[in-house]
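dumping this here so i dont lose it again. seq + smiles for adenosine-5'-triphosphate
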Amino acid sequence: MSPGIVEKFNPRKTSALTSQRDLVRGNRRGRYVPIHEITLEEVRKNAIQFGLATDLLYQVSAGKEASIFLAMWKKHPIILKAFRYWTSAQSRKKKGYFAPTQMEALAAKEFDILSLCYKAGVHVPTPIGRVGNYVTMRFIGDAMDTAPQLRDAEVVDPERVLDQILDDYLLMYSKAHYVHGDLSKYNILWWRGRPWIIDVPQACRVDAWADMKQVESLLYRDIRNVLSYFKKYGVRRDADYILEQFISEYTPHNLRNYRESVGSSYWRVR
Ligand SMILES: Nc1ncnc2c1ncn2[C@@H]1O[C@H](COP(=O)(O)OP(=O)(O)OP(=O)(O)O)[C@@H](O)[C@H]1O
Ligand SMILES: [Mg+2]
């Protein structure tokens, strides 16, 4: 007998993600689960079960909250970013508890912000899919090489490259309405003669309810981080002037007069 419409959309068989969540929780209820170890095999199994990849090759890096893997979608290399509530052999051993839902929220945030930036024309890895705490995206690199971080790149035309980064960041800010919040020589990759912005889950939305003081200080820090990398090439730009350009390009409509409302001295503290 074919399933009724209600059953069809509410299948009794649990999804791979639900089974995985149950497995991680064990018999526990509540927000937190103990940190445990996970192997490359288990990540591969999840990625394949979730339909995110057809194979997992190796771990590329282990950051504070996420591990990055090179995966395959059929014959194409892709990146799988896993927000961790577990440790892996390659990452530092930690003890304690983690909230899996927080990691899923970060994965969802990274996917959504990458999508908005991509649509706004920013050079970011094209997002592909997201299930649970896993996100897949375009691999910046090719069969021979992985794109290096900007800090390890050899830049021959630094003025132009700095312009490309600032143009992309201005698009992210003024069209996608996000402040990156961790932009630096580490979160910019260098590939085929141009910079690519990565690592966006901490980005901060700039909308009608934004705290513009916080927005300004994050923008200012990002701009200064980028400018400091270019000092070694003898490139000097004025961070205050660039910040003003960003703010004048986009400020949420209802916050147009935000500086007046709190007094100008308040804004000098950055
Ligand atoms: N799309 C990609 N293509 C190629 N390499 C990538 C890609 N995404 C990430 N990487 C590699 O993995 C590294 C870590 O990525 P990312 O900064 O997104 O993760 P992270 O765990 O948040 O890092 P951290 O905590 O160290 O900032 C990058 O510096 C880069 O070397
Ligand atoms: Mg990073």
